[in-house]
């Protein structure tokens, strides 16, 4: 399922999908592609991007989260970890794009 932060944090999604036990039983990963936009867009354009930690709280700690970006500098990484609710000791894996 692909969702925007605006939909994922909406009351309707929470009531109709997120709190449904069948959905919860099948949710195995939350992936954020281009995770650097959480910082870039969340501050100035689309504020729900900066509130993804709320979604993480609603889902709970039993579901792993994955953030991917080819352009994530160290300063933005720290901000994204906070905004997404990642533990400060989260594993960061850097690889070449080649």
Which key features would you list for this structure?
98 residues, mainly alpha, 45% helix, 8% strand, globular
Write the layout of secondary structure elements.
Blueprint: H1 5-8, H2 11-18, H3 21-26, E1 30-33, H4 37-44, H5 52-59, E2 65-68, H6 74-83
Parallel strand pairs: 1-2
Instruction: Give the ordered list of helices and strands.
Output: HHHEHHEH
Give the biggest beta sheet.
2 strands, parallel
Shape, principal axes of CA atoms? globular
Question: Helical percent range?
Answer: 40-55%
Commentary on this structure:
45% of the residues lie in helices and 8% in strands. It has 98 residues and is mainly α. Strands 1-2 form a two-stranded parallel sheet. The longest helix is centred in the last third of the chain and has 10 residues. The radius of gyration is 14 Å and the shape is globular.
